[in-house]
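thread from #wetlab-drylab

HS: before we spend reagent money on co-crystallization trials with S-adenosyl-L-homocysteine, can we at least see a predicted complex? here's what I'd submit
DV: go for it
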Amino acid sequence: MVEKQIAARGVKDPRVLDAMRRIPRHRFMPTDSQARAYGDHPMAIGYGQTISQPYMVGLMTEALELHGDERILEIGTGSGYQSAILSHLTNYVYTIEIIEPLFHETDSLYDQLETRYPGYKNIHRKLGDGFYGWEKYAPFDRIIVTCAVDHLPPPLIQQLTPNGIMVVPLGPPARQYIMKVERVTDEKGAVTLKRTDVYNGVSVKFIPFRNDQGKSYSSQGE
Ligand code: SAH
């Protein structure tokens, strides 16, 4: 999977590739689809949610530029696969999931896997609405949003460190672009957001960033 689908398509960060070689992706997928876990396609993870294909996970993870001591917040724990990768790349992982049964399933999966993969103990998990971030542990050096939104949630910008990076699928419900948003703070303290499309203008379709009533945060939301 890593050589053919991820490295061959341009993901270079050796730490990201190494983490993706080590993580047992099938363990994070529903039992009846584990045999397909390493294929080049998104997968259903239950409760109407999906996880991106491995390449997209690699691309977004690389864009986070993790070196090992960053505090990272993930919005949308889902299957837990993305945060498992993050826990190989840094010691401080915080993740929020809004769908209660999915949160509990993934929480107990981590409890089971912790004996074999002690790094998962570093994944702090919360049931809640990620739109508001996680004030208690803010600020974060990095934030990754794994659901689609058409504007940057202001609380997440506020919870980013002065030179922090956020990676987010940004755009209306029909299509988004994978944006790397760097919070750049000049010597006078003025903040600008520098945006780069890390997928070279190719659009993607992520599942919506929703509130606890199940409504999308995007203005044209379903
Ligand atoms: N990172 C996940 C991808 C899951 S898909 C993985 O590795 O499997 C995106 C997830 O975002 C879904 O589980 C969905 O329930 C969740 N989500 C949507 N809106 C959210 C919100 N406001 N707060 C937290 N999670 C949210």
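DV: Residues 45, 49, 51, 75-76, 78-79, 81-82, 96-99, 102, 129-131, 146-147, 207, 209-210 surround S-adenosyl-L-homocysteine (CB under 6 Å).
HS: ok that's useful, forwarding to the group
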